[in-house]
Amino acid sequence: MATLLHIDSALARENSVSRAVTASFREAWEAVHPDGTVIHRDLAAEPVPHIDADVYGAGFVPAEERTAEQQSAAALRDQLIRELEEADAILIGAPLYNYAIPSTLKAWLDHVILPGRTSGTENPSAAGTPVTVVSSRGGSYAAGTPQEGNDFAVPYLTHALGTVLGLKPEFIVPELTLARVVPAMSGLIEAADASAASAHEAASHLGRELGGKLAGAAA
User: Fold this and answer.
1) Which residues contribute to the annotated binding site for FMN?
2) Which residues contact 48 (CB under 8 A, 6 or more apart)?
């Protein structure tokens, strides 16, 4: 049976657009592949620690030669990497915070990017795995807008997930999520609703497509 690695990083719970859209993907995936496994990591509720010297150093030492401190520190990193390697599909909620990704998601990436294993080799251990990224944002950073060029989430994740880890990223970008919250954006509510509807539709489509393909392969 196939495994979906589902990662959320939005601070908000009930009103998070990225969480709502990843939920649409997951529901569609589970509908066509009910026997599949879902591993859900909520990095806001249970953040992974930032890389420290022991974790970093352990990545360059054979397991049998690690100190006790390095072995303990590396255990979580090994678990996170195994989850990445064993996933048949990956789903990431990555809201845009201060022009970039949440620090909790960056910490997760720092753990799973390991030279000689998941990166820096001709055959990264998780290469080829499809990853759907929901990158929501309160405004718009599209071409022609005042904020054009200030989105440092999608370009970074394209490189980190695609070039470095060898995954196959696809992005869903719901915009203007603050239109109902910020009075000055009230004129953009219709556009925000249209963007959200398009994001949910795209997420459901990709969830069904990937889930169906993986269910068929497992049959």
Assistant:
1) 16-18, 136-139
2) 76, 80, 104, 107, 108, 111
